[in-house]
Write a structure and sequence with these properties.
The chain has 172 residues and is mainly alpha-helical. The protein has 2 domains: 75 residues, no CATH class; 77 residues, no CATH class. 41% of the residues lie in helices and 9% in strands. It is built from 4 helices and 5 strands. The strands form 2 sheets. It has a 3-stranded antiparallel β-sheet with strand order 3-2-4, with no helix packed on it. β2 and β3 form a beta hairpin. α2 crosses α3 and α3 packs antiparallel against α4. The longest helix is centred in the last third of the chain and has 33 residues.
Length: 172
């Protein structure tokens, strides 16, 4: 049976020391990449964060910061921060229907988990992002056409009309 050390990870998810108890000389109070404080316990339940394997071959394997606590199941601070940032990013998206915005918002929480719903959420996310990229390409093509040969003869007027696209050309 495997035994594990306790990991030290900064609040932004940078692994500081996957062997914080057996190699304490490598511990840091703050992250040297971002300056955030470091933790070794789940902030919700105070359970130790599982670190690297203490078996003979443990040092050969890579280690990534876990997304969720093994004891209480809550997301670690770095996972919560990424979720909040992703939700904020979706709020800032332009040229997206409210239905797609809601679908993206609902998909974000599933994307960080490894569940059967994650595949469905990823598919929805890709579909909506693909529509947004197609719309962006349409805008870029129209912008290029305006700069090359504006239909009205006035570049400024042509470019102003690009942002006034009919609703039918917006992603739905």
């Amino acid at each position: 049976m495997n035994s594990y050390d306790v990991a030290q990870i900064c609040l932004n998810g940078h692994v500081i020391n996957r062997y914080s108890q057996s190699e304490p000389e490598s511990n840091q109070k703050h992250c040297d990449k971002c300056g955030a404080p470091t933790i070794t316990l789940c902030p919700k339940c105070q359970s130790p964060i599982r670190g690297g394997s203490l078996d003979d071959f443990g040092s050969m394997f890579s280690y990534s910061a876990p997304g969720f606590c093994r004891n209480c199941g809550n997301p670690f601070p770095w996972t919560e921060s990424r979720l909040i940032a992703a939700h904020e990013l979706v709020k800032e998206l332009e040229n997206i229907s409210e239905e797609d915005r809601t679908t993206l918002q609902n998909s974000i929480d599933e994307l960080v988990k490894d569940t059967p719903s994650s595949t469905v959420a990823a598919t929805k996310f890709k579909r909506i992002i693909s529509k947004l990229l197609e719309f962006r390409l349409l805008l870029d093509n129209r912008r290029a056409a305006c700069l090359h040969k504006p239909p009205s003869g006035k570049i400024e007027e042509c470019l102003a009309n690009i942002t006034q696209l009919p609703r039918s050309t917006l992603p739905t």
